[in-house]
């Protein structure tokens, strides 16, 4: 039997949408109610690959997800970007004036902060998943409560959309990683992006030296994220993404970075999906 793809949330969530676009419309999914549960399902072998949000253009990086990938020694085997459209939805018949509480995923609420400033009487409550709230409202026939979720979720659970596209900037987008316990199998895809992690001694110019190597070997850094090393206060590890045209040059740069940095790990090499 085909193994499932782990997603955060349920059908109708943005993770589900990504799984459908990245694999195929009817891909079998394993619904997980937290990112920690998602990574656990991969480690336990209950899913073959997972879809995990890593950064949103309005709300920023999901820092705990860097730690989850690192701690569980997972590999990044792909990436996918989607525009995110947030909608306020309710049980049919409810009006905006009736709404007292709105539940959604914390990243979703962050993306709609500006919209809710107009309605200070509405309480925003963080929940595990956008679509799961929509399903709960429908199943329990909850009044005075709304969800922030995708249009697909409203359709799936028969809710009415009270306000469309309520995210702060119209260009809202989220980057998702495709993760696995195994390295990417060659499947004919071009490999032109990599995610790396390393630690640096707190020494003048140590990060600049790394950046110079990236430049010298024609690697384009698309993202840098520092993370505190919890065992050593005020010491940081760095997660970087680079794109390149020449895989050999990438390998040469890695060889040098191995000497210049501490604990260099290749978190994955895969196809760049940002056009
Ligand atoms: O709750 C969902 O529907 C999700 O897929 C989670 C999630 C996230 O983790 O960032 C996915 C994309 C959006 O940025 C908002 C929420």
Automatic annotation (TrEMBL):
Q: Is-annotated flag, keyword Lyase?
A: yes
Keyword line: Amino-acid biosynthesis, Aromatic amino acid biosynthesis, Lyase, Phenylalanine biosynthesis
- Location of the ACT domain: 195-271
Metabolic or biological pathway: Metabolic intermediate biosynthesis; prephenate biosynthesis; prephenate from chorismate: step 1/1; Amino-acid biosynthesis; L-phenylalanine biosynthesis; phenylpyruvate from prephenate: step 1/1
Domain Prephenate dehydratase stretches: 4-181
PROSITE patterns for this protein: ACT, PREPHENATE_DEHYDR_3
**Which chemical reaction does it catalyze?**
prephenate + H(+) = 3-phenylpyruvate + CO2 + H2O; chorismate = prephenate
- Keyword set includes Signal: no
Could you mention a single GO BP entry for this protein?
L-phenylalanine biosynthetic process
Q: What is its EC number?
A: 4.2.1.51, 5.4.99.5
Could you state a single Gene Ontology molecular function term? chorismate mutase activity
The GO cellular component terms are:
cytoplasm
Q: Which domain of life is it from?
A: Bacteria
What this chain does, per the entry, is described as: Catalyzes the Claisen rearrangement of chorismate to prephenate and the decarboxylation/dehydration of prephenate to phenylpyruvate.
Entry protein name: Bifunctional chorismate mutase/prephenate dehydratase
Q: Which organism is it from?
A: Salegentibacter flavus
Q: What is the lineage of its organism?
A: Bacteria, Pseudomonadati, Bacteroidota, Flavobacteriia, Flavobacteriales
